[in-house]
Write a structure and sequence with these properties.
This protein has about 250 residues and is an all-alpha fold. It is built from 10 helices and no strands. It has helices at about 1-35, 55, 60-65, 70-90, 95-115, 135-160, 165-185, 185-205, 210-235, 240-245. The chain is extended.
Length: about 250
C-alpha cells in the first residue's frame, strides 16, 4: 500500500510540474507577442536630415572639440583672448599693424631675455619649433584654393548670365542683408559677432538638440510652404534666358 501511495504522489508531482511549465511557457509567449505588437519607436528627425552626431559633422577632430567645448578651459581661453583683441581694436582704437608690431616686440623680447638668462638661472632655453612648409603642402593648399576660386567664378558667371533666376534672387537677398549689417556694425564688430555665434551656437545646439530640432523642422516646413507660394505666384511666371531662346 505504501509503494502505491508513493507512486501516486510522485505522479501527482510530475503532473503539477508539467502544468506549471505549460503556464510559464504560455505566459512568456504571450508577453513576447505583446512586445511584438508594441509599435517600435521611430528615429528622431534631425535638422537638415542629419544622420551623424554633431561632433562627426564638424570633422571630429580638435577643431570640433574646441567648438563644442569638450575642454572648457581651452575653449574659454580662446574666447577670452579673441574678446580682449576685439576690445583693444574697438574700444581703445588699436590699429591692426600697431597691434601686430607690439605683439612681436613683446614676444621677441621675452624669448631673447629668456634665452640669455637661462644659463644664469639653471633653466633650459626655450625651444622653438622648426616650421618648414613642404612643397607638397603648398601645392595641396594651392589646389584647394584654386578649386574654390573656380567654383566661385563659375557661380558668379551663372548668376550674371541670367540662367538661374532662383540663385540670382538668393544672391541679391544675401548681399542686401550683408549690406544692411555692414551699415549697422563695423567690419571688426561684425567679424567678432560671427566668430562668437560660430563658437557658441554649436555647443548650445548640442546641449538642447532635441528641442531645437523640433522647432527647426517646423520652421523649415513653413519656409518651404511660403517659398512654394512665392514660386507659384511670381518666380515661375518670370521668363528666363533659356525660355526666350526656345521661343
Amino acid at each position: 500500500m505504501m509503494s502505491e501511495n508513493e507512486e501516486h504522489g510522485s505522479l501527482l508531482e510530475k503532473i503539477s510540474e508539467k502544468i506549471h511549465e505549460y503556464k510559464h511557457s504560455s505566459s512568456s509567449s504571450s508577453s513576447d507577442s505583446d512586445d511584438d505588437k508594441k509599435p517600435k519607436k521611430s528615429k528622431k528627425k534631425r535638422l537638415f536630415g542629419r544622420k551623424h552626431p554633431l561632433h562627426h559633422v564638424l570633422g571630429g577632430g580638435k577643431a570640433a572639440d574646441l567648438v563644442l567645448w569638450r575642454n572648457k578651459q581651452t575653449s574659454g581661453s580662446i574666447l577670452a583672448g579673441v574678446t580682449v583683441i576685439w576690445l583693444l581694436f574697438e574700444g581703445i582704437g588699436y590699429h591692426l599693424l600697431t597691434f601686430l608690431c607690439h605683439a612681436l616686440i613683446v614676444f621677441l623680447t621675452v624669448c631673447f631675455v629668456w634665452s640669455n638668462a637661462a644659463s644664469f638661472i639653471n633653466r633650459s632655453p626655450p625651444r622653438f619649433p622648426e616650421v618648414i612648409l613642404s612643397e607638397v603642402q603648398c601645392l595641396k593648399f594651392a589646389h584647394i584654393a584654386r578649386k574654390e576660386i573656380n567654383e566661385a567664378f563659375f557661380t558668379l558667371r551663372n548668376v550674371a548670365s541670367g540662367k538661374d533666376l532662383k540663385t540670382y534672387l538668393m544672391s541679391i537677398a544675401v548681399l542686401w542683408f550683408i549690406s544692411i549689417l555692414g551699415s549697422c556694425f563695423s567690419f571688426l564688430t561684425l567679424s567678432y559677432t560671427i566668430f562668437l555665434m560660430a563658437y557658441t551656437l554649436p555647443m548650445l545646439y548640442e546641449k538642447y538638440e532635441d528641442q531645437v530640432d523640433v522647432v527647426g523642422e517646423k520652421a523649415l516646413i513653413e519656409i518651404k510652404k511660403q517659398y512654394a507660394v512665392l514660386d507659384g505666384k511670381l518666380l515661375s511666371k518670370i521668363p528666363t534666358l533659356s525660355d526666350k531662346k526656345q521661343h
